[in-house]
Design brief:
Layout: H1 2-36, E1 42-45, E2 55-64, E3 69-77, E4 83-91, H2 96-113, E5 118-123, H3 126-133, H4 143-154, E6 157-162, H5 169-178, E7 185-187, H6 195-202, E8 207-210
Parallel strand pairs: 2-5, 5-6
Antiparallel strand pairs: 1-8, 2-3, 3-4, 4-7
Helix pairs in contact: 2-4
């Protein structure tokens, strides 16, 4: 009888201990999840062509601090995603912001002289979109050129949008190529170093951003 009672007490202790370990492990898991945060959010990024009659510009700027060189560039595409032209150029102003702004200024000038008046501008810089809405925010040394650019835009049918950098690889490649140049270069068709990115955009292949 005494032995039976001892076994019952032992089983009770074991059962209580198991419950405590389960409760402790559950709370620790929940605490670690809160401490580490949620899994990163995955955003699908896809480049889209313009509608018929429009030209879409994707532009970008680059500044390599270590080398002290900058560049910018843009690509012009039609409703089928075909490249109508592209350019790359160097820039002497030591600023990635200046490179982004100059990319838009030169792209609009080139569109204007080619009589492309239905323009969709897409950039990966939210700052550039802010400058389109509030021109006086533009750095003073670029303000006159920017205001001239906005004058051209005012006589166009124009829209602008943001795309994440993952979807702006063509323009990014052109901007980085510009860092190795000494003057602006124009191509009537896609140069070889952007062909793979253009093909991916043409096929509508998604890229993914983690945030």
């Amino acid at each position: 009888m005494g032995r039976s009672l001892q076994l019952k007490e032992l089983w009770l202790i074991c059962f209580t201990s198991i419950l405590w370990f389960v409760w402790h492990a559950r709370n620790k898991t929940r605490f670690d999840e809160c401490r580490l945060g949620r899994a990163p959010r995955v955003i699908e990024v896809v480049w889209h062509p313009p509608v018929i009659g429009w030209v879409k510009i994707n532009s970008d700027g680059a500044w390599k601090h270590a080398e002290g060189v900058g560049g910018f560039g843009a690509v012009f595409r039609d409703f089928k995603g075909h490249v109508l032209g592209a350019f790359s150029s160097n820039i002497d102003i030591p600023s990635s912001v200046a490179a982004e702004v100059m990319a838009v200024i030169v792209a609009i000038e080139l569109a204007w002289v080619r009589d492309w008046k239905h323009i969709w501008l897409e950039v990966d810089s939210s700052l550039v979109l802010d400058y389109l809405r509030s021109p006086l925010l533009v750095p003073w040394n670029l303000r006159v050129c920017w205001l001239n650019c906005l004058r051209c835009i005012s006589e166009m049918t124009f829209r602008s949008s943001h795309i994440f950098r993952e979807g702006n690889k063509v323009a990014d490649a052109l901007a980085n190529h510009g860092t190795s140049l000494t003057q602006l270069i124009w191509w009537d068709s896609a140069p070889p170093f952007i062909l793979s990115y253009c093909s991916s955009d043409l096929m509508g292949l998604p890229l993914f951003r983690f945030s």
